[in-house]
What does this fold into?
Amino acid sequence: MALSHDDLWPRAGDWPALEASGDDLDLALIGVPTWRTSLSPTGAHETPAAVRDALRRYSPALMSGPIDLGALRIADAGDVEEPDGRDGEAAVRARVGLARARARLVVALGGDNSATYAVAQGVAARGLITLDAHFDLREGISNGSPVRRLIEDGLDPQRIVQIGIADFANSVAYAQRAAEYGITVIGLDDVRRRGTADVMAEALEVSGSSGGRVHLDVDVDVCDRSVAPGCPASVPGGLAAWELRALVRAAASDARLGSADIVEVDATADSSDGRTVRLAALCVLELLAGLGTRA
It folds into this structure.
């Protein structure tokens, strides 16, 4: 169905190509449609296009102010073709590196969670925050292993914070591995007890403690399955949509955050109203909101 047009109600998305933009950008968007090593059957490679389409359902306007985020300098670097495998990861690092040189914030649209590995390396992240129900410390190469792979390639695990780790979605062995690494783990119950602002403030302090860019991994399966049915591993009882959005905006409000990915959404398995893809699109806008309101 065609969307209505109103000159006084501009839509988000439809941002110019990176190649046609200047060198001084606020945000660069990149599609990283990883899917081939997923532990669950997925059509996540269809998701970047679906999120771009869903963005047009929203405006770039904050009502506190109000503030027109459309005034920010935003560009779209397109999708990395075939981002899986050694050659694909190298292509992701190269494309992300080019965007990093031109933008204050680089946002990658996955794809499954394996995208986090090459994206974080492409921006030369020194710290990592994950919003995820899972540790992602598995052996091998898959959407369940990016955190372990980053650590093995030199990322300091004491600058990693994992928010939203869920009961009944992990093993004791991987919880022990996280503890042995020295990762800071903040489970779902602690997020709700402490509140999103307090939790993200700690995460930024830990991950950004020694300078350098912090990368945010937004794995949408951290959310309750009622709001994220298009995530293969989402479970009942996860974060509410507003909690995820608040955490994402709080992270982007801090200048230490230099990049983010939004992953684990399978657009082909979403509900008929597209609620998971729409939530992913809102996460893009929350990153933009945080960036636009930085002190």
Summary: The chain has a mean pLDDT of 97. The radius of gyration is 17 Å. The longest helix spans residues 275-292.
